[in-house]
Amino acid sequence: MVLRRSKQTDNGTGRGKKLAIISLAGILWVGPVIGAGGFAPLNWTGGSVASAASAVKLGEEILTSGAILMKYRYSTSSGTALADVIRVDLTNPYVKLDVMTGKGGQFTTRQSTEGMAKETGAVAGVNGDYFNTSREGAPIGGQVSDGELMSTPSDLSGMYAFAVTKDGTPMVEQFTFDGTITADDGSSFELAGINKAAYTPETSGSSYSHSNAAYIYTSAWKALERPENSSTTPTEVLVENGVVTQIAENAALPIAVPENGYILRTHGKAADFVKQHLAVGESVTTNYKLLVKSSGKEIDPSTLQMMIGGHTILVNEGKASSFSRSVSSIGGTRARTAIGYSKDNRYAYLIAVEKNGSSAGMSLNELQSFMTSIGVWKGLNLDGGGSTTLVTRDLGNTEPDLTFNTEYGTQQRSIVNGVGVYSEALQGTLKGFTVGGSKTLLIGQTGSYTLKGYDTYYNPYNIGTTTVTWSSGNPAVVSASGGTVKGVKPGTATLTAKSGSATATTKVTVLGAEGISSLTAGSGTGSLSKGTTISIPVTAKTTDGQNVSISADALKWEFIGFKGSVKGNELTVSSVDAGAEAGYAIGRYDGFSTVVTLTADGGSSMWEDFENAGYDVSFTTNAQGVTGSAAIMDGSGEKAGSKVLQLDYDMTGGSGKMYAYAELNGTSGKTIQTPATGISMDVFGDKSLNWLRAEIADADGDTVYVDLAKAIDWNGWKSLSADLSGLDIAYPAKLKRLYVVNVEEGQDERAKTGTVAFDNIALNAPGTVSGQGLKTGTAQMSIGSKSMTVNGNQTVIDAAPITRNGSTYVPIKYILDAFGGQAQWNASAQRVTVIRGGVLMDLNVSEKQFVLNGKRKNADVAPLVLNGRTLVPLRLVSEQLGLTVKWEQKTKTVTIQS
Q: Which of 14, 118, 453, 687 would you label with 476, given CA atoms 20 to 30 Å apart?
């Protein structure tokens, strides 16, 4: 047969994958290196058991005729995992599976799963085969796309592949390749493979894949170098339409492979064959086949619709299989990708296990158990970890989108190939439509909603200028005008759209305060001066993790220390109260508060900018072989003219969990004198995907670790912040280290060399904001006594401290009288608001949750009302306000200091 490569069509191929090479006992190991719908639901239900195992189906949605998306919940040793499964009916003529490749259907290009799916017109797609990230970008396994053999299997033990024949029969097997190239004189030479990167074979005895070998490179290989890092200079032959048109002895042809031909790349004995038997103008033919390793059965690649390479077999005959090769480099609890088929050969399953804030991920053994529980008869492991990506097209939409967040959030890896699901149906008639738009609104927020049609094959249908009538089932919750809906008050309403006899509905929930976890207004700081205008766009984070923008003037605002107004997203100071050194703008959404603190210096709380650091900075590590440096130096780019702390690291010589530390002041650290509720800094990122942390040693000798970024997924300077209020830090504390971590799990997905830098470390600490007569000193109160001593002076109080369930409660008014600040009581809301320095706290009677500077927090105790007085938990409130509390058990005395 003559090698060919057809041009990509709308339903053609798309994209790719990567892999790591690790030496295990002298044997080359190929492992992963780097790597997510609403519609008229078929059934998005709440938890029917899928099998006798612990897989629980949460629901399913139609993607297109013959393909459905199912979501499962599965119990694992690490917690609850979510798995998304696309089931494709291989007997349905209107759907097919195919392999997507890079950009433009070519190797060495790499693209995200979503990019490949959109480029090729896929209904859905999942990441595919392993590949060597240090090479050009070609799959390790074999690949057939749209019936064309694009890459041959590598000589590696235990590597399985998934294939579907043109008559719809699925296979999971180990495949080998057998081919020859024949000259005009009848002489022939073994063909080693097609479109392969260089690697170390495992069974042939050769130390280098291309030694004394002949490989073919088609126009599916985009790069001009074929492959990189050859051990010897090749002889390359250009064959067009079966005829030799160029021969470059001891040289590579500096040309791209034409569509009507291929380049024969030869080394050693293969190059000698070219010299002796091939000549320009003579014909040359190729013959090749795939072999099933277990049976020796010959497979003509042209009989296959698709084939994707993978790794170990996971399931065989409906049971967990022993692994066909070492899985030490792909172990742990990770996001996972797998593929398999049902016992009756009818269904193919594309499986993506999530690991993110909602899902714990799975081990390979847990993945095996899950696959058997949903009906997989035979299946294999595809690339996983950070590469695991699923994209799906919601009913009525024209393109797929990320179905769930990857291990690195919304970031998708650029890979070499993936498996796409394609519709083969012609345009059908209108079957129905769906309502598209946000399922969640805030009070006062407006959302736009649209209708999207789908046909009899569940593919997009253009409804054009169809007249649509919109209505709300509960106008007290949302008001609807055309496709624009506004949240009115907390609750859930049904939004209905009608067009002729067709009706579609969707539930819209308007969130109240209980649905908010944080509320942030701009930077939270500003300058207290007449005429100042401050930008305060408000972002609400919901309890289910969504970030929702809302206009600042949709909140109810109150001002302390100044008079002002809020219009749109701007706060304007019209006048400053006499003697005020600080001001507060308190915005409330359904009672949930956020605060903007205004001071004469604009709210600055700079702790270290490295301009005049009077201490040394040094580099240390935990692992032998890790090197680097840490120093305060002149910044560059946007930091030109200022000093920064720069950390350079090289972990290529290390192993295990590796750290690169920038030590502040040797092992001593720099002191954080007063309690801080937050820390922020500018960080120069290297997009290494490593973990960025800070280490604090507190006054009790405890070590506190602060996550600055779970993955350094950006290049250049970026402002980061971290919440310190829930870390139980005893002050004074010391910031000892800023450092980069390369953990073992998924280590091959992250860079081992890089540079990060730090500047402008700021602390949000109670008492750093001047004004309101903040005072220092010592106060004492005794349980049951209506007197209080402040700096040696005794004063009468009208409510005595009490203890209840091991906690001390006090009337907060007297604490604030002694140390500065103020409290406000809202009787209707049963809420006390406490303000001191840079801190605003909202506490509700009998509720253990409280709001601290716009963030919902949990406490062990709640405020209470006793004899008409509101008493608050002393230690909780005092420590959040920058005060220290000591308890003397013998005298039942509380000592408070500032």
A: 453
Q: Does residue 841 contact residue 851 with C-beta atoms inside 8 Å? A: yes
DSSP 104: T
Strand order in the sheet with 469-472: 440-442, 502-511, 491-499, 469-472
Cα 445 to Cα 806: distance, rounded to the nearest angstrom: 44
Task: For residue range 38-83, list pLDDT tens digits in order.
Answer: 223 333 333 333 343 479 999 999 999 999 999 999 999 989 999 9
The answer to whether the CB of 124 falls within 8 A of the CB of 1 is: no
DSSP H stretches of helix in 494-571: none
Decide: 218 and 195 in contact? Cβ < 8 Å: yes
CA distance 532 to 575: 9
How far apart CA 872 and CA 875 sit, in angstroms, is 9
Residue 423, Cβ density class (10 Å: 0-12 exposed, 13-18 middle, ≥19 buried)? buried
Residue 867 has pLDDT above 90, yes or no: no
CA-wise closest residue to 247 among 199, 183, 292, 293: 183
Q: How far is CA 248 from CA 76, 184, 286, 527, 766, in A?
A: 58, 18, 20, 72, 75
- Range with lowest mean pLDDT among 371-375, 463-467, 689-693: 463-467
- In one-letter notation, the amino acid at residue 561 is G
DSSP 466-502: ---EEEES-TTTEEEETTEEEE-SSEEEEEEEEETTE
Question: How far is Cα of residue 201 from the mean position of the Cα atoms in its chain?
Answer: 35
Consecutive H or E run containing 817: helix 812-819
Task: Please give the DSSP secondary-structure letter assigned to residue 322.
Answer: P
Q: Which residue has the higher pLDDT, 45 or 775?
A: 775
pLDDT in tens, 100-120: 999 999 999 999 999 999 999
pLDDT at 474: 86
Nearest to 236 by CA among 209, 222, 255: 255
Q: Which of 660, 670, 726, 739 is nearest to 876 (CA)?
A: 726
3-class SS of residue 215: strand
Do 189 and 179 meet the contact criterion of CB atoms below 8 Å apart?
no
14 DSSP β-pair partners: none
Angle at 698 between CA 804 and CA 756, to 5 degrees: 130
Structure tokens at 299: 């497979």
* Nearest alpha carbon to residue 265 among 295, 222, 235, 294: 235
What proportions of the chain, in percent to the nearest 5, are helix, strand and coil? 5, 50, 45
Q: Looking at 204-218, 287-301, 370-384, which range is the least confident one?
A: 204-218
Averaged pLDDT for residues 134-157: 94
CB atoms within 10 A of CB 784: 10
Q: Name the pLDDT band for 579 (thresholds 50, 70, 90).
A: confident
The DSSP-derived string for 170-210 is EEEE-EEEEEEEEETTS-EEEE-EES------SSS--SSTT
- Token pair in block for residue 662: 């920038």
Whether 426 shows a pLDDT value over 60: the answer reads yes
Q: Which band of pLDDT confidence, cut at 50, 70 and 90, is reported for residue 876?
A: confident
DSSP secondary structure letter of residue 514? G
> Tokens 């959030």 identify what position?
409
pTM of the model: 0.77
Q: Where are the beta strands (DSSP E) in 590-637?
A: 592-599, 606-608, 617-621, 627-634
Burial of 567 (0-12, 13-18, 19+ CB in 10 A): exposed
Number of Cβ atoms within 10 Å of the Cβ of 646: 22
Task: State residue 157's pLDDT score.
Answer: 95
Cα angle for residues 529, 532, 533 (degrees, 5° grid) = 155
DSSP state of 426: P
